[in-house]
């Protein structure tokens, strides 16, 4: 218990000393602040009450992919060589196991209403040593097109590994990207007719996306020391190309290294807004020494605003486009429906030596949230430490979801309002609604409903918003500039401490007591 004397109040054993009204105001203000902060801490320990589980299902094998139909009614899961299709109320419609056993599922995609599902099976994993380089190349890779009932509409075989597949929202076009020995973009219709087979200058075709009407495809295509990963590539840097291709075989645009991106980059993830007027791309940039040997890497996330007239000259508006470079590799990006919010998730980086293969992988996962219409202003970030496998935005932009060592749910202002109990590899995505999402553990899918209600109604700086929410007795409006700065700075320090695992109660109380003291002095 802190003695009252430390708060500037005189006491006496005789009990007949009077406490003046001004000091009483100070005491009440301090006590009120302490109670509010303590209540918030108590609530934060009961955050599971903010989320209710709608249903959950066990899966026979390790889940590594999850896709949600645009209408939010269907959930597709992918494991090593299996596919599962659920309705959003937990009913398993069908499952499929690839019969050959020598290839693994690399990619799945759904039409808007899940009338069709496409899946691509190819190489098992990237080789991790020279000895594995040739062993990991499959003899035959396959893409399957399924209808909603699970019936195979067609099967497409390829001698090259199928790295990625995409289907247009209406199902009229399927895009297959192959790699390892020969990079190709193969566009088929739902009858399996090959519309175009476009040879790419590099050998790995990933990631890729199709426009809403299906008339254009966007592909990031990179080349490594085939088929080995770039860190085995001595003296030969990777090359990256961005393609925009019409489904009628017309190449709209090709640019080495992409837009706003330096050389030696590899894209890992791509996302578009609903109207296809903007794109988000994330990945890594490889830093080479004078001998073209990779000695370091950092992440990149780029926001690309499309011009109204797209041609071979320039399909992006460089005045509205921007890039950001976190220290860690970007694994996942997501654009909001309107394109005004961009979320990126990072994983970590290799600790390298100039004379040897990477020595150690450092986990350095984080979630970054940007306002795209403010030149890429970083709105907030949150360290998960463990790699972030997926990021997702709710349809109303009020919530951010991340899959890492468990699922993380944030409100739009950066407050962590819930984390799953399972401290396990997770992928998490919204069901195209404002209050429902699904996440996976290694052997389970769980669908949840958000019961938390945001009460924030105005856009204030994050630190001011949180301060007003934590202490309704504080009125920043009536404070002068100096007092505002003190309160905001102290609150900001408190939040930074709170965002660190193992933060201590005294740090939070200390900042709040100082803020309360200033405000009570002002009222005095």
Automatic annotation (TrEMBL):
Organism: Candidatus Methanofastidiosum methylothiophilum
InterPro entries found in the cross-reference section: WD40/YVTN_repeat-like_dom_sf, WD40_repeat_dom_sf, WD40_rpt
Source organism superkingdom: Archaea
Record-given protein name: PQQ enzyme repeat protein
Coiled coil regions, renumbered to chain: none
């Amino acid at each position: 218990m802190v003695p009252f004397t430390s708060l500037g109040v005189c006491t006496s054993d005789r009990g007949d000393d009077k406490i003046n009204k001004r000091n009483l105001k100070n005491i009440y203000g301090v006590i009120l602040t302490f109670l509010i902060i303590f209540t918030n801490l108590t609530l934060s320990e009961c955050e599971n009450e903010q989320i209710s589980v709608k249903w959950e299902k066990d899966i026979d094998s390790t889940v590594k992919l999850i896709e949600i139909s645009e209408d939010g009614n269907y959930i597709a899961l992918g494991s090593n060589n299996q596919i599962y299709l659920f309705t959003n109320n937990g009913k398993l419609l069908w499952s499929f196991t690839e019969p050959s056993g020598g290839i693994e599922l690399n990619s799945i995609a759904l039409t808007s209403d899940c009338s069709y599902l496409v899946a691509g099976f190819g190489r098992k994993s990237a080789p991790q040593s020279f000895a594995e380089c040739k062993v990991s190349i499959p003899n035959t890779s396959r893409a399957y097109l399924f209808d909603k009932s699970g019936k195979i509409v067609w099967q497409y075989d390829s001698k090259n590994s199928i790295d990625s597949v995409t289907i247009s929202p209406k199902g009229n076009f399927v895009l297959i990207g192959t790699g390892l020995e020969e990079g190709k973009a193969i566009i088929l219709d739902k009858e399996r007719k090959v519309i175009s087979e476009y040879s790419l200058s590099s050998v790995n075709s990933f990631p890729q996306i199709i426009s809403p009407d299906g008339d254009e495809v966007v592909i990031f295509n990179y080349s490594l020391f085939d088929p080995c990963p770039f860190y085995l590539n001595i003296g030969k840097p990777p090359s990256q190309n961005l393609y925009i291709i019409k489904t009628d075989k017309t190449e709209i645009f090709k640019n080495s290294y992409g837009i706003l991106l330096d050389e030696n980059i590899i894209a890992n993830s791509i996302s578009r807004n609903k109207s296809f007027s903007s794109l988000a791309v994330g990945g890594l940039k490889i830093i080479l020494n004078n001998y073209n040997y990779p000695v370091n890497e950092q992440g990149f996330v780029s926001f690309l605003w499309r011009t109204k007239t797209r041609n071979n000259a320039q399909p992006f508006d460089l005045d509205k486009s921007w890039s950001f470079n976190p220290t860690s590799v970007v694994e996942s990006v997501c654009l909001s429906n309107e394109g005004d919010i961009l979320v990126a998730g990072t994983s970590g980086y290799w600790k390298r030596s100039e004379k040897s293969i990477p020595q150690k992988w450092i986990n350095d996962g984080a979630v970054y949230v940007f306002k795209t219409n403010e030149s890429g202003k970083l709105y907030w970030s949150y360290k998960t430490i463990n790699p972030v496998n997926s990021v997702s935005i709710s349809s109303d932009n009020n919530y951010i979801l991340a899959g890492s060592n468990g699922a993380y749910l944030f409100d739009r202002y950066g407050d962590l309002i819930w984390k799953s109990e399972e401290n396990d590899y997770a992928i998490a995505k919204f069901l195209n609604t404002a209050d429902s999402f699904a996440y996976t553990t290694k052997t389970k899918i769980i669908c949840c409903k958000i019961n938390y209600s945001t009460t924030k109604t105005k856009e204030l700086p994050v630190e001011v918003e949180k301060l007003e929410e934590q202490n309704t007795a504080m009125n920043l409006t009536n404070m002068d500039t100096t007092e505002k700065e003190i309160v905001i700075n102290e609150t900001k320090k408190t939040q930074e401490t709170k965002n660190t695992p193992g933060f201590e109660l005294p740090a939070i109380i200390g900042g709040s007591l100082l803020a309360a003291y200033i405000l009570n002095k002002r009222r005095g």
